[in-house]
Amino acid sequence: MAIRNIRVDGDDILRKVSKPVKEMTDRISELIDDMFDTMYESNGVGLAAPQVGILKRIVVIDVMDDDPLCLINPEIIEEDGEQTGEEGCLSLPGLVGDVTRPMHVVCKAFDRDMNEIIVEGEGLKARCICHELDHLDGVLYKDLALDGLHPVKRPEEMEEYEDD
């Protein structure tokens, strides 16, 4: 397992459409392990294969709900509701923007054993699924940001709260 370099905005690969995975191989399995390691090392909650320079339809997600996901050839088959909130991206470090996403999604994919699975996401998990699947089609969240992007506030810039 290894930490891979994350491609950043401006790298052409982030704008390309990824190809489906036809079968599980040792190289694909290693890529998945590396993607999880890279995501955790970077304090992310999701990572798509194009972000590490591989044009394959693979994403990994862990929103810290005790259910880390590896989704191969994922597609959203149902969505409903709406939520607007701040998003960031490992490929656009230091920036955030408000994006509207579905509140609930149902996603069909294959797991790392190439078994078909159905995954449901609500709230943050739904947002993350949508965000990562967009990467597979060359879409970045900045394309959807309502009022553009702005720098992440550093802790010293955050308002201090006092006990009443």
Fold and architecture overview:
The protein has 164 residues and is α+β, with helices and mostly antiparallel strands. Helix content is 18%, strand content 29%. The chain contains 2 helices and 8 strands. The protein has helices spanning 26-41, 124-136, and strands at 46-48, 58-61, 69-80, 83-88, 95-101, 104-110, 116-122, 150-151. The strands form 2 sheets. The chain has a 5-stranded antiparallel β-sheet with strand order 1-2-3-6-7, with helices on both faces. It is globular, with a radius of gyration of 16 Å. The N and C termini lie far apart (49 Å). The mean pLDDT is 94.
Task: Produce a short descriptive summary.
With 164 residues, the chain is of the alpha+beta class.
Any key phrases for this structure?
5-stranded antiparallel sheet; 164 residues
Relative helix content: 10-25%
Gross morphology: globular
Order of helices and strands: HEEEEEEEHE
Please state the CA-atom Rg, rounded to the nearest Å: 16 Å
The N- to C-terminal Cα distance equals: 49 Å
Q: Give the averaged pLDDT, no decimals.
A: 94
Number of helices: 2
Structural class label: alpha+beta
Strand content of the residues, in percent? 25-35%
* Strand arrangement, major sheet: 1-2-3-6-7
Sequence stretches where pLDDT stays below 50 over 5 or more residues: none
Largest sheet descriptor: 5 strands, antiparallel
The beta-strand count equals 8
